[in-house]
Design a protein that fits this description.
Blueprint lengths: L1 H12 L24 E4 L5 H6 L6 H10 L3 H4 L5 E3 L9 E2 L2 E2 L4 H14 L5 E5 L1 H8 L7 H6 L8 E4 L7 H6 L2 H17 L1
Parallel strand pairs: 1-2, 1-5, 5-6
Antiparallel strand pairs: 3-4
Helix pairs in contact: 1-5
């Protein structure tokens, strides 16, 4: 199965499905290994990630690593942590931040990749598009309600707000996230690493 995942990864790296809709040349960014026990299901790479070729290579990534209680070295070890965004390429910038992830990636690649990630024990679901995919009708009416109901999704899925600095106000308004959810997140990450 590892060889088949390798072939899938090669195909994904060469993907050009949405090239005409991207502001920059395609640069599919993800981190995969069939041994990974933690999956980060995110949105799409930002401009800095596009430029460096490294997922979460920005302030969002720093905050996410802090939330998880892991070092940069551990975070970028694909045998520990898989990173599979809903869209693999930088989608461009809109009025209120980055544009939504292109839908072609999820439609074409997501399930075949997930089928290979059989060692995953914990999925961190970040952002509305990832929540829609991974939780579907189980979501609550708002992101806040969904994150607050984290216990109802079982021990293997944890919904999170996006770690972007744009969410500083949300974090200030919801101090329970830091006191109630982050210790559980860090304990689970430690267990599965």
């Amino acid at each position: 199965m590892a060889r088949r995942l390798d072939g899938l990864i090669n195909d994904m790296r060469g993907c050009r499905l949405c090239e005409k809709n991207l502001p920059l040349a395609p640069n599919p960014i993800f981190q995969l290994n069939s041994k990974a026990r933690i999956l980060i299901a995110g949105q799409a790479p930002g401009l800095r990630a596009h430029q460096s070729g490294t997922p979460f290579d920005d302030a969002s990534g720093e905050r996410l690593r802090d939330w998880m209680g892991v070092t940069r070295e551990t975070f970028y070890n694909p045998e520990c942590i898989a990173i599979l965004p809903m869209g693999f390429c930088y989608p461009g910038h809109g009025r209120a931040g980055d544009l939504p992830p292109r839908p072609e990636c999820a439609t074409t690649w997501r399930q075949p990749v997930l089928d290979h990630l059989t060692a995953v024990q914990l999925t961190l679901v970040i952002g509305q598009y990832a929540l829609n995919w991974h939780l579907g009708d189980q979501q609550k009416k708002t992101l806040t309600e969904t994150v607050r109901a984290w216990k109802s999704y079982g021990p293997s899925v944890l919904p999170l707000p996006h770690p972007s600095p744009r969410n500083n106000l949300w974090l200030r308004r919801n101090p329970w996230f830091e006191t109630d959810v982050l210790p559980v997140l860090q304990k689970a990450v430690t267990r599965y690493l």
